[in-house]
Amino acid sequence: MSDIVPPSAEGAPVEGAPAEDAPAEDAPAEDAPAEDAPGWAARKLLRAARLGTLATSLAGQPFASLVTPATAPDLALLLLLSSLSEHTRHLRAEPRCSVLVVGPPGGANPQTSPRATITGLAEVIDDPALKARYLAVHPYAALYADFGDFALWRIQPMGGLFVGGFARAARLRLADLTLDPHAVAAIAAAAAGIIAHCNEDHADAMARIAGAPGDCRMVAVDVDGCDLAQGERVVRIAWSAPVVDPGGVRAELVRLARVEG
């Protein structure tokens, strides 16, 4: 499994990445944040969210809508919205908004659920790569993604609030939600090669990591983790800590494959 991800999309070594036969320990991630660090916990929650609540306003009147978010490589929130929707009309008039995402509760009390509210400015974005990333985690949306009234919107996080459970709240600053641009660019540049290599040569390992037997494909990868699809079921797999280069992705996948194996 040591070759689960090549050092780069083209197979050439990446500066700072480990040699292909180096042990996984030689490709460290960023300094591992504490498990309960609000910024890292919020990042993982946002990446995994497939359902959320969009809060908009018009003429001072708040309005809440169900949405299906995805994230861009830099953690910006992506929404596929119809111009016929009330919330879209609101955003065109007032781009300031917030999105709430909620994780599974730790018990019967819903207040034990981790959740994050992100504030930002919404804008329409015409970017085929971001649209493809959105559809990678919401494949069913391909049925209407090209309808004339639908457009991709991006919300760049500016701050927010993370609640890790009952009575565990922490403010999210811009710095908590701003990723290293060099790391984001390095993984984005190698993503196509990483995905192709994993799907062509390590499909069995992808299924083990996803936790379910059957055909499984990696559909997205970034500094915080990857997304694995089995039909229309797409699961988010978080790294143990953010990575900074393709070597870090390889080390994390090797670790996960060993754990699940």
Number of domains: 2
Uncertain ranges: 7-28
* Rg, alpha carbons: 19 Å
CATH superfamily of the largest domain: Electron Transport, Fmn-binding Protein, Chain A
Tell me what the structure shows.
This protein is 28% helix and 30% strand. The relative contact order is 0.20. It is α+β, with helices and mostly antiparallel strands and 261 residues long. The protein is built from 6 helices and 11 strands. The protein folds into 2 domains: 24-30 and 180-260, PNP-oxidase-like (Split barrel-like); 38-177, Electron Transport, Fmn-binding Protein, Chain A (Pnp Oxidase, Chain A, Roll). The longest helix has 21 residues, at 181-201. Strands 1, 2, 3, 4, 5, 6, 7 and 8 form an 8-stranded antiparallel β-sheet that branches. A 3-stranded antiparallel β-sheet has the order 9-10-11, sandwiched between helices. Helix 5 (203-210) packs across helix 6 (246-260).
Detail the topology: elements first, then pairings.
Elements: H1 38-48, E1 52-58, E2 61-67, E3 70-71, E4 77-82, H2 86-93, E5 96-102, E6 115-124, H3 128-137, E7 150-165, E8 168-172, H4 181-201, H5 203-210, E9 217-222, E10 225-230, E11 233-238, H6 246-260
Antiparallel strand pairs: 1-2, 1-5, 3-4, 4-7, 5-6, 6-7, 7-8, 9-10, 10-11
Helix pairs in contact: 5-6
